[in-house]
Amino acid sequence: MDIEELRTFVEVADAGGITSAARRLGVSKSIVSRRLGRLETELGIQLLARTTRGAALTEAGVTFREHAAKIVAEIEMARETILPDGDLRGRLRVSVPLSVGPSQFAPILAELARRHPRLHVHAAYSDRFVDLVAEGFDCSIRVGYLPDSNLMARRVGPFYGKVVASPDYVERHGMPETPDQILNHEALMQGTEAWQLTDGERIVMVQPRGRFKADNGTALVPAALAGLGIAWLPDCLVDEHLASGALVPVLTRFPPPVAGVYVVRPPGQYPARKVQVLTEMLIEHFGK
Questions:
Q1: 262 contacts 151 by C-beta, under 8 angstroms
Q2: By the 8 A CB rule, do 225 and 247 touch?
Q3: Domains and CATH numbers, the chain
Q4: Cα(116)–Cα(123) distance, rounded to whole angstroms?
Q5: pTM above the 0.90 mark?
Q6: Which of 69, 83, 229, 249 could form a disulfide with 188 if both were Cys (CB 3.0 to 4.6 A apart)?
Q7: Residue among 262, 269, 276 at smallest CA distance from 105
Q8: Strands (E), 18-61
Protein backbone atom coordinates (compact mmCIF):
# COMPACT_ATOMS: atom_id res chain seq x y z
CA MET A 1 0.00 0.00 0.00
CA ASP A 2 1.52 3.32 -1.13
CA ILE A 3 2.08 5.99 1.53
CA GLU A 4 1.23 8.79 -0.93
CA GLU A 5 -2.13 7.17 -1.58
CA LEU A 6 -2.80 7.01 2.16
CA ARG A 7 -1.71 10.64 2.65
CA THR A 8 -3.89 11.73 -0.26
CA PHE A 9 -6.92 9.93 1.15
CA VAL A 10 -6.43 11.54 4.57
CA GLU A 11 -6.14 14.99 2.99
CA VAL A 12 -9.30 14.51 0.92
CA ALA A 13 -11.17 13.20 3.94
CA ASP A 14 -10.10 16.14 6.12
CA ALA A 15 -10.57 18.80 3.44
CA GLY A 16 -13.91 17.45 2.29
CA GLY A 17 -13.02 17.51 -1.38
CA ILE A 18 -10.47 16.75 -4.06
CA THR A 19 -9.83 20.37 -5.03
CA SER A 20 -8.84 21.46 -1.52
CA ALA A 21 -6.71 18.36 -1.00
CA ALA A 22 -4.91 18.90 -4.30
CA ARG A 23 -4.13 22.48 -3.31
CA ARG A 24 -2.77 21.35 0.04
CA LEU A 25 -0.68 18.57 -1.48
CA GLY A 26 0.58 20.75 -4.31
CA VAL A 27 -0.51 18.34 -7.05
CA SER A 28 -3.21 18.31 -9.71
CA LYS A 29 -6.76 17.11 -9.11
CA SER A 30 -6.25 14.29 -11.62
CA ILE A 31 -3.32 12.93 -9.60
CA VAL A 32 -5.45 12.99 -6.44
CA SER A 33 -8.26 11.14 -8.21
CA ARG A 34 -5.89 8.49 -9.56
CA ARG A 35 -4.35 7.89 -6.12
CA LEU A 36 -7.79 7.51 -4.56
CA GLY A 37 -8.87 5.14 -7.32
CA ARG A 38 -5.81 2.92 -6.85
CA LEU A 39 -6.31 2.82 -3.07
CA GLU A 40 -10.00 1.89 -3.32
CA THR A 41 -9.18 -0.76 -5.95
CA GLU A 42 -6.50 -2.30 -3.71
CA LEU A 43 -8.84 -2.32 -0.70
CA GLY A 44 -11.80 -3.48 -2.75
CA ILE A 45 -14.14 -1.01 -1.06
CA GLN A 46 -15.44 2.52 -1.58
CA LEU A 47 -13.95 5.01 0.88
CA LEU A 48 -15.43 8.23 -0.46
CA ALA A 49 -18.78 9.14 -1.94
CA ARG A 50 -18.20 11.84 -4.57
CA THR A 51 -20.81 14.59 -4.67
CA THR A 52 -21.20 17.86 -6.55
CA ARG A 53 -20.13 19.68 -3.37
CA GLY A 54 -17.05 17.58 -2.63
CA ALA A 55 -16.42 14.15 -1.14
CA ALA A 56 -17.98 12.53 1.91
CA LEU A 57 -16.60 9.54 3.79
CA THR A 58 -18.48 6.27 3.55
CA GLU A 59 -18.90 4.21 6.71
CA ALA A 60 -15.83 2.20 5.74
CA GLY A 61 -13.99 5.44 4.94
CA VAL A 62 -14.62 6.81 8.44
CA THR A 63 -13.06 3.73 10.00
CA PHE A 64 -10.16 3.56 7.58
CA ARG A 65 -9.37 7.28 7.90
CA GLU A 66 -8.43 6.93 11.58
CA HIS A 67 -5.95 4.13 10.86
CA ALA A 68 -4.56 5.83 7.75
CA ALA A 69 -4.00 9.12 9.59
CA LYS A 70 -2.01 7.36 12.32
CA ILE A 71 0.12 5.52 9.76
CA VAL A 72 0.86 8.72 7.82
CA ALA A 73 1.72 10.63 11.01
CA GLU A 74 4.06 7.88 12.24
CA ILE A 75 5.89 7.68 8.91
CA GLU A 76 6.24 11.47 8.77
CA MET A 77 7.73 11.45 12.27
CA ALA A 78 10.11 8.65 11.31
CA ARG A 79 11.24 10.52 8.21
CA GLU A 80 11.81 13.71 10.16
CA THR A 81 13.81 11.85 12.80
CA ILE A 82 16.43 10.66 10.29
CA LEU A 83 16.81 13.96 8.45
CA PRO A 84 20.37 15.31 8.93
CA ASP A 85 20.96 18.21 11.33
CA GLY A 86 17.29 19.02 11.81
CA ASP A 87 16.81 19.54 8.07
CA LEU A 88 13.33 20.33 6.75
CA ARG A 89 11.99 19.54 3.31
CA GLY A 90 8.71 19.61 1.45
CA ARG A 91 6.33 22.56 1.41
CA LEU A 92 5.07 24.85 4.17
CA ARG A 93 1.93 26.74 3.19
CA VAL A 94 1.19 29.44 5.76
CA SER A 95 -1.45 32.16 6.00
CA VAL A 96 -0.16 35.48 7.34
CA PRO A 97 -2.01 38.70 8.25
CA LEU A 98 -1.65 41.38 5.61
CA SER A 99 -1.60 44.41 7.91
CA VAL A 100 1.47 43.44 9.91
CA GLY A 101 2.75 40.34 8.13
CA PRO A 102 5.19 41.90 5.64
CA SER A 103 7.00 43.86 8.36
CA GLN A 104 6.67 41.53 11.35
CA PHE A 105 6.57 37.98 9.98
CA ALA A 106 8.08 38.01 6.47
CA PRO A 107 11.67 38.33 7.85
CA ILE A 108 11.12 35.25 10.05
CA LEU A 109 9.75 33.23 7.15
CA ALA A 110 12.73 34.31 5.05
CA GLU A 111 15.10 33.18 7.80
CA LEU A 112 13.27 29.84 8.00
CA ALA A 113 13.81 29.34 4.25
CA ARG A 114 17.48 30.37 4.57
CA ARG A 115 18.13 27.81 7.31
CA HIS A 116 16.36 25.02 5.40
CA PRO A 117 17.27 25.19 1.68
CA ARG A 118 15.09 22.18 0.79
CA LEU A 119 11.95 23.63 2.36
CA HIS A 120 9.52 25.43 0.05
CA VAL A 121 7.82 28.29 1.93
CA HIS A 122 4.56 29.55 0.41
CA ALA A 123 3.06 32.51 2.32
CA ALA A 124 -0.37 33.99 1.57
CA TYR A 125 -1.08 37.44 3.07
CA SER A 126 -4.64 38.34 4.03
CA ASP A 127 -6.38 39.79 7.07
CA ARG A 128 -9.33 37.41 6.73
CA PHE A 129 -9.43 34.21 8.77
CA VAL A 130 -8.81 31.58 6.10
CA ASP A 131 -10.26 28.08 6.34
CA LEU A 132 -7.04 26.17 6.96
CA VAL A 133 -8.41 22.77 6.00
CA ALA A 134 -10.53 23.73 2.99
CA GLU A 135 -7.88 26.06 1.56
CA GLY A 136 -4.97 23.73 2.17
CA PHE A 137 -2.81 25.58 4.69
CA ASP A 138 -0.40 23.87 7.07
CA CYS A 139 -0.82 26.68 9.58
CA SER A 140 -1.70 30.32 10.04
CA ILE A 141 -0.06 33.15 11.97
CA ARG A 142 -2.82 35.19 13.59
CA VAL A 143 -2.82 38.23 15.83
CA GLY A 144 -5.45 39.64 18.15
CA TYR A 145 -8.04 37.78 20.22
CA LEU A 146 -8.84 34.33 18.86
CA PRO A 147 -12.44 33.13 18.70
CA ASP A 148 -13.20 29.63 19.94
CA SER A 149 -12.77 26.94 17.29
CA ASN A 150 -11.70 23.33 16.85
CA LEU A 151 -8.30 24.47 15.54
CA MET A 152 -5.10 23.96 17.52
CA ALA A 153 -3.60 27.30 18.62
CA ARG A 154 -0.25 28.07 20.25
CA ARG A 155 0.40 31.54 21.66
CA VAL A 156 3.93 32.60 20.72
CA GLY A 157 4.04 36.13 22.12
CA PRO A 158 2.20 39.35 23.01
CA PHE A 159 0.81 41.86 20.56
CA TYR A 160 0.08 45.48 21.44
CA GLY A 161 -2.25 48.07 19.96
CA LYS A 162 -3.57 51.57 20.65
CA VAL A 163 -6.60 53.70 19.91
CA VAL A 164 -5.40 56.76 17.99
CA ALA A 165 -6.59 59.82 16.07
CA SER A 166 -5.03 62.82 14.39
CA PRO A 167 -4.69 66.11 16.33
CA ASP A 168 -6.91 67.71 13.70
CA TYR A 169 -9.69 65.20 14.31
CA VAL A 170 -9.49 65.73 18.08
CA GLU A 171 -9.57 69.51 17.64
CA ARG A 172 -12.68 69.31 15.46
CA HIS A 173 -14.59 66.57 17.30
CA GLY A 174 -13.15 66.50 20.81
CA MET A 175 -11.38 63.79 22.74
CA PRO A 176 -13.52 60.86 23.96
CA GLU A 177 -13.00 60.37 27.69
CA THR A 178 -14.76 57.02 28.22
CA PRO A 179 -15.34 53.95 26.04
CA ASP A 180 -19.05 54.66 25.58
CA GLN A 181 -18.21 58.05 24.06
CA ILE A 182 -16.64 56.22 21.10
CA LEU A 183 -20.21 55.78 19.85
CA ASN A 184 -20.38 59.54 19.27
CA HIS A 185 -17.33 59.49 16.99
CA GLU A 186 -16.39 58.30 13.53
CA ALA A 187 -14.48 55.02 13.75
CA LEU A 188 -12.08 53.65 11.14
CA MET A 189 -12.72 49.93 10.90
CA GLN A 190 -12.03 46.74 8.98
CA GLY A 191 -15.65 45.61 9.15
CA THR A 192 -18.17 45.42 11.95
CA GLU A 193 -15.69 44.40 14.62
CA ALA A 194 -16.06 45.22 18.28
CA TRP A 195 -13.22 46.95 20.14
CA GLN A 196 -11.97 45.60 23.44
CA LEU A 197 -10.79 48.11 26.05
CA THR A 198 -9.77 47.71 29.68
CA ASP A 199 -11.40 49.40 32.66
CA GLY A 200 -9.19 48.30 35.53
CA GLU A 201 -9.56 44.52 35.69
CA ARG A 202 -12.65 44.57 33.51
CA ILE A 203 -12.83 44.16 29.72
CA VAL A 204 -15.23 46.59 28.05
CA MET A 205 -16.65 45.82 24.59
CA VAL A 206 -17.50 48.76 22.32
CA GLN A 207 -19.28 48.46 18.98
CA PRO A 208 -18.03 51.53 17.05
CA ARG A 209 -19.58 52.97 13.91
CA GLY A 210 -18.02 54.73 10.96
CA ARG A 211 -18.25 55.43 7.25
CA PHE A 212 -14.65 54.57 6.30
CA LYS A 213 -13.68 50.91 6.20
CA ALA A 214 -10.82 48.90 4.71
CA ASP A 215 -10.01 45.21 4.79
CA ASN A 216 -6.59 45.69 6.37
CA GLY A 217 -5.10 47.85 9.09
CA THR A 218 -2.35 49.32 6.91
CA ALA A 219 -4.96 51.01 4.74
CA LEU A 220 -6.59 52.60 7.81
CA VAL A 221 -3.42 54.48 8.78
CA PRO A 222 -3.69 57.12 6.00
CA ALA A 223 -7.36 57.61 6.94
CA ALA A 224 -6.38 58.26 10.54
CA LEU A 225 -3.63 60.65 9.44
CA ALA A 226 -6.16 62.49 7.26
CA GLY A 227 -8.39 63.09 10.29
CA LEU A 228 -11.27 60.88 9.15
CA GLY A 229 -11.80 59.23 12.52
CA ILE A 230 -10.52 57.20 15.44
CA ALA A 231 -8.76 53.90 14.81
CA TRP A 232 -7.69 50.86 16.85
CA LEU A 233 -4.34 49.91 15.30
CA PRO A 234 -1.29 47.79 16.13
CA ASP A 235 1.68 49.59 17.68
CA CYS A 236 3.92 48.62 14.78
CA LEU A 237 1.69 50.62 12.40
CA VAL A 238 1.37 53.78 14.51
CA ASP A 239 4.51 54.15 16.64
CA GLU A 240 6.27 56.25 14.00
CA HIS A 241 3.29 58.61 13.67
CA LEU A 242 2.84 58.90 17.42
CA ALA A 243 6.51 59.86 17.76
CA SER A 244 6.16 62.55 15.08
CA GLY A 245 2.90 63.91 16.53
CA ALA A 246 0.92 63.10 13.39
CA LEU A 247 -1.27 60.88 15.58
CA VAL A 248 -2.12 61.09 19.28
CA PRO A 249 -3.27 58.32 21.65
CA VAL A 250 -6.95 58.23 22.58
CA LEU A 251 -8.57 56.73 25.69
CA THR A 252 -5.22 56.24 27.45
CA ARG A 253 -7.08 55.44 30.69
CA PHE A 254 -8.82 52.55 28.90
CA PRO A 255 -6.11 50.88 26.79
CA PRO A 256 -6.80 47.77 24.70
CA PRO A 257 -5.88 44.55 26.50
CA VAL A 258 -2.69 42.88 25.38
CA ALA A 259 -3.51 40.64 22.42
CA GLY A 260 -1.47 37.70 21.21
CA VAL A 261 0.46 36.28 18.30
CA TYR A 262 -0.66 32.72 17.58
CA VAL A 263 0.27 29.84 15.35
CA VAL A 264 -2.93 28.04 14.42
CA ARG A 265 -3.04 24.65 12.72
CA PRO A 266 -5.72 22.16 11.72
CA PRO A 267 -6.70 19.64 14.40
CA GLY A 268 -4.54 16.56 14.61
CA GLN A 269 -2.46 14.58 17.05
CA TYR A 270 0.95 15.38 15.61
CA PRO A 271 1.90 18.85 14.38
CA ALA A 272 4.22 18.73 11.38
CA ARG A 273 7.83 19.37 12.30
CA LYS A 274 8.03 22.30 9.87
CA VAL A 275 5.16 23.93 11.80
CA GLN A 276 6.93 23.19 15.07
CA VAL A 277 10.15 24.81 13.84
CA LEU A 278 8.30 27.93 12.66
CA THR A 279 6.53 28.10 16.02
CA GLU A 280 9.84 27.91 17.87
CA MET A 281 11.31 30.71 15.75
CA LEU A 282 8.30 32.92 16.45
CA ILE A 283 8.52 32.22 20.18
CA GLU A 284 12.19 33.15 20.07
CA HIS A 285 11.34 36.44 18.36
CA PHE A 286 8.07 37.51 20.02
CA GLY A 287 8.22 35.73 23.35
CA LYS A 288 11.03 37.89 24.73
A1: no
A2: yes
A3: 3-82 (1.10.10.10), 85-159+260-286 (3.40.190.10), 161-256 (3.40.190.290)
A4: 16
A5: no
A6: 229
A7: 262
A8: 48-51, 54-57
